[in-house]
């Protein structure tokens, strides 16, 4: 069967391509995982298009791998079994804004930046900020979170309803417009984080928030990592309304200074942002200053104007690129675990020790307000010894987290990079997940080889 010819009978020819360059673009993501070419790339424009393509693929048992912008970090959208790479970038419209209900309905291909540009007209914003300008469909598929989750929650917390095309071509809605429901199983929670293994998300109804009256950013340097993490715990215990709380180690600050020509003090640092009203924030910030000073923070710097705040968070968001540009010829490997906050400082110190013992170049950063942190490791993929050391580091970091009640992935998803830890983390529940997969996708066409080691 000529797959391109058959798909041209379903969609317009301009929506289907086997162009080598286009296939290569859809063979990889931002991760270090090995690329793999799809047989064909398809660009649906509507739910009906997706429905027809998936129904066709199910009939002929052809793999379907949803694709957003390729910003995933665990090989989540790499088509290791070939088949159809379903690029949803043309489905990027805002379908409905309901300001009074603090809801917006969008197609999956819209990006976070595009969404917030539309919401700003209504005095609203979407909170989840994973750093990359990812698509909302991709963010839902991996249950993304990022810098603001300490205040507003993760992607799963923002989803009110999803429209999903199942493997057999059926279209379902997983929720509604109501703020709460006790009716039936929570299908929102099931589909968010499923990485395209249960169906294709074609619409999202999302919770949005009012733009705060006052936003203040701060940077606080500490004598050591333990003091910095202890400050995080103390700030949270004081119920100070912090919206972002990011740990950046001294190695990260050094790299930021090199790439941004800044002169931040090269010590373990917490980047913070506060949302609220002006009078309330002044009181909260004074309280916060007392807390951090008791933990050895000698200097704390505040940024009030929009430009200065943007520069501060640009340094944090572009940290990965600072390492990439600083070490040409090497590829960035990013680990991703989350632990109880009380276990976080020990995990960070252990990761630094492991990295130094293995002789790897890298740094530690994290969304420490919810216990999520990352090791950024620069690896020469052509050096088998160095690559194996990096994989050892990742394995040690994951095992440390799992032994202390954590998870192997806080926000990047399982993809192919975390499959080997699923049984250890979930136990008997892993078999329940596999049973759900088998029920909804009996032929195993939906993003095969992800989350589950055997379909």
Determine the number of helices (DSSP H or I, runs of at least 4 residues). 17
CATH topology of the largest domain: the name is Uridine Diphospho-n-acetylenolpyruvylglucosamine Reductase, domain 3
What's the CATH C level of the largest domain?
A: Alpha Beta
Indicate the CATH architecture of the largest domain.
2-Layer Sandwich
Outline type: globular
Question: Uncertain spans, ≥5 residues at pLDDT below 50?
Answer: none
Strand content of the residues, in percent?
15-25%
Q: Taking Cα atoms only, what radius of gyration do you get, to the nearest Å?
A: 22 Å
- Residue-averaged pLDDT, rounded? 95
Distance between the termini: 24 Å
Number of strands: 19
Which secondary-structure class do the elements indicate?
Answer: alpha+beta
Please summarize the sheet with the most strands: 8 strands, antiparallel
Could you name the key traits of this structure?
17 helices, 8-stranded antiparallel beta sheet, alpha+beta, flavoprotein, transit peptide, Uridine Diphospho-n-acetylenolpyruvylglucosamine Reductase, domain 2, single chain, 455 residues, globular, 5-stranded antiparallel beta sheet, Uridine Diphospho-n-acetylenolpyruvylglucosamine Reductase, domain 3, 4 domains, Oxid_FAD_bind_N, Alpha-Beta Plaits
């Amino acid at each position: 069967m000529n797959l391109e010819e058959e798909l041209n009978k379903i969609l317009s020819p301009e929506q289907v391509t086997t162009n080598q360059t286009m296939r290569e673009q859809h063979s990889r993501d931002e991760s270090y995982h090995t690329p793999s070419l799809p047989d064909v790339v398809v660009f649906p424009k509507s739910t009906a298009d997706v429905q027809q393509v998936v129904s066709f693929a199910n009939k002929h048992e052809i793999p379907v791998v949803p694709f957003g912008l390729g910003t995933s970090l665990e090989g989540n959208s790499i088509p290791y079994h070939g088949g159809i790479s379903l690029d949803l970038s043309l489905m990027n419209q805002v379908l409905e804004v309901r300001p009074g209900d603090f809801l917006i309905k969008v197609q999956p291909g819209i990006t976070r930046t595009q969404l917030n540009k539309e919401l700003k007209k209504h005095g609203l914003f979407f909170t989840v900020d994973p750093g990359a300008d990812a698509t909302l469909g991709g963010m839902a598929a991996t249950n993304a979170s990022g810098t603001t989750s300490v205040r507003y929650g993760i992607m799963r917390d923002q989803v009110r309803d999803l429209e999903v095309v199942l493997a057999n071509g059926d279209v379902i809605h997983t929720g509604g417009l109501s703020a709460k429901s006790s009716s039936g199983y929570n299908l929102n929670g099931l589909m968010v984080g499923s990485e395209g293994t249960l169906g294709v998300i074609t619409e999202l109804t999302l919770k949005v928030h009012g733009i705060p009256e006052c936003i203040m950013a701060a940077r606080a340097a500490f004598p050591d990592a333990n003091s910095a993490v202890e400050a995080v715990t103390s700030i949270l215990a004081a119920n100070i309304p912090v919206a972002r709380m990011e740990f950046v180690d001294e190695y990260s600050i050094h790299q930021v200074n090199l790439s941004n020509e800044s002169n931040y003090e090269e010590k373990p640092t917490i980047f913070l942002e506060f949302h609220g009203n002006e009078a309330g924030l002044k009181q909260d910030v004074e309280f916060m200053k007392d807390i951090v000073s008791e933990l050895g923070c000698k200097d704390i710097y505040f940024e009030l104007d929009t430009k200065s705040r943007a520069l501060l968070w640009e340094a944090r968001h572009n940290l990965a690129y600072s390492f990439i540009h600083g070490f040409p010829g090497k590829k960035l490997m990013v680990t991703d675990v989350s632990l109880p906050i009380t276990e976080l400082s020990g995990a960070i110190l252990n990761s630094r020790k492991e990295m130094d013992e293995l002789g790897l170049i890298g740094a530690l950063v994290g969304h420490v307000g919810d216990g999520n942190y990352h090791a950024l490791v620069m690896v020469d993929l052509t050096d088998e010894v160095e690559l194996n050391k990096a994989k050892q580091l990742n394995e040690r970091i994951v095992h440390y987290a799992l032994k202390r009640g954590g998870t192997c992935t806080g926000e990047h998803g399982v993809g192919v990079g975390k499959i080997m830890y699923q049984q250890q983390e979930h136990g008997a529940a892993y078999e329940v997940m596999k049973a759900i997969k088998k029920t909804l996708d009996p032929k195993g066409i939906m993003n095969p080889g992800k989350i589950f080691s055997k379909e």
